[in-house]
Amino acid sequence: MSFGDRRSRTANRDKLRAILTGVFAQDLRENWVTRMKAANIPVGYLRTVEEAFNSPEVRERHRLSQIPHPAAGHVPNIESPLNLGLTPVIDPVAAPLLGQHTREVLRTKLGYDDARIAALADAGAFGMVTPAEVS
Hints:
This protein is mainly α. The chain is 40% helix and 9% strand. The protein has helices at 6-11, 13-24, 29-38, 49-53, 56-60, 102-108, 114-122; strands at 64-69, 73-78.
């Protein structure tokens, strides 16, 4: 079986992946990266979220920040390293809470009035509703 060109690697992807998985399982990721860099092979790896937050690059470049969050207080954030001259950078915001914008979307995008939205809420279309969400 040949893996010498892209077409044969694609055709035999599952077999090639099994072979590579077996080879790479024989050593630590960091050792493979070091060996590949020494051989002038372009290499990189995906970090876990925890690894990304604790990476030397993020800390040395002061890219770690906190985003205010209505339920969690603050959530950690890795700031973008990009600075665009003609496009100003905006401060990141936390992801919306589940259902946070439902009523606004129904009003502005679908044209629903308050009565129709209330009827949907009463029918359970939005799940369990707390008193604070009714407004």
